[in-house]
Amino acid sequence: IIEDIAKSHIGCVILCDSFSAICPLAEKTENITGAIRTVGPKLMSQFCKRLRQILTVNNVILLSTLHLISNCSGYGPAYMSDGGMKLKYYSDICLEIKGTEPWMSGTDQIGQVINWNCTWNSLGSPNKKIGSYLRFGWGIDNVMELIELGIQLAVVNKAASWFSFGDIKCQGQEKLRTALLENPEQLASLEKEVKAMLV
Predict the structure, then answer these.
(1) What global pTM score does this model have?
(2) Cα–Cα distance between 102 and 131 in angstroms, integer?
(3) pLDDT tens-digit profile of 24-61?
(4) Cβ atoms of 117 and 127 closer than 8 Å
(5) Strand order of the sheet with strand 168-171?
(6) DSSP 3-state helix, strand, coil percentages of the chain (rounded to 5)?
(7) DSSP state, 72?
(8) CB burial class (10 A; 0-12, 13-18, 19+) of residue 15?
(9) How does pLDDT run across 63-93, given as a tens digit for each residue?
(10) What are phi and psi of 59, to 5 degrees?
């Protein structure tokens, strides 16, 4: 299915949840007690090798989740991807969730901060740590992430609890977020300035 979409929809973004579900037909049809040696990692490696060329030629972005499993061998890391080690060589970037923290607004939890570790990055050095804001009822809060990046890059001015960008000045990040959502031109301007500094 993924291969067909990648071939027929040039320039698309495919989200797959998840590669960990790949298994041979025998694993699906045998009895639960059947002794089948799993070949999931080998299948996944072959699939990624075959798909890599299609993605590159058709300018397709593929995002997929993988699950971590305990490494019982006694060698290497305590946890490893159930897709095997080869997958990182077919990926441009691999991110691992290292944990979450409650995202509070006063005494109310409005979401979670997801802490990521970049384990593989073909565009730069790995082992960088980043955080994402997951807002309940919203999803990944890209506006809050833009504000955070803006503060780090000195595009958004911060003085104690006061924040300002362009004509907007308010107390607290939540109020700045609301103001930016109410002013799409200012939000677009912030995104443009942040992206220009990151490139």
Answers:
(1) 0.68
(2) 12
(3) 777 777 776 655 556 667 777 788 888 888 998 999 99
(4) yes
(5) 157-159, 162-165, 168-171
(6) 35, 30, 30
(7) T
(8) exposed
(9) 988 877 777 777 777 777 766 667 777 788 8
(10) 55, 50
